[in-house]
Amino acid sequence: MSGTIRRRWLTGIIIVFLGYVAVRVYLAGFDVAPPASHSIPVTVGAGIARGERIRSHSWSIDYQKITTSEDQSYVTVDGVRNGIVYRDGKPYLRLRAAHVAVNMITHDFTASGPIVVKSTNKAKPRTFETTAAVWTEAAQRLDLPQPIAVTSPGTSLHVRKLSLDVRSGQLHLEQIGGSLRE
Question: Hey, is 14 helix, strand or coil?
Fold first, then answer.
């Protein structure tokens, strides 16, 4: 055999071998079994759950019962006795609620039932009582979309809606009735 024919045979064998390897690599993913799709929800008795930011706490809750979703991305919490929303790593708001649903991926949560939210600001202590609350982690915002009773020393207000931007400290109130003394 001449050198040209030998090179053609060798090139052909290499091309067939590379083609065989490429087909085997492509088909390799087809025999992998998919993950089990029947995860079951988990219920746990009393405990503490926390949401963390990169450098500090975001929120924490002391609860009576917690139930996870099948994929563990959502939890429902019953009997929140001591919930805390942090600002700059320090307690900013304290929360009690009958029921809380938490998105474990975004760290957002909604609360329902009798809810009491107290600010930790000793110079201007405030208490908010309502039946619904929504915390949005990305915006660091607490919304109280149901009627709220706001109390602090010398103040008694009834508010239809309230929004609090935790980053800026700005408070937005709608349809206010009552007395205010600052």
Answer: helix
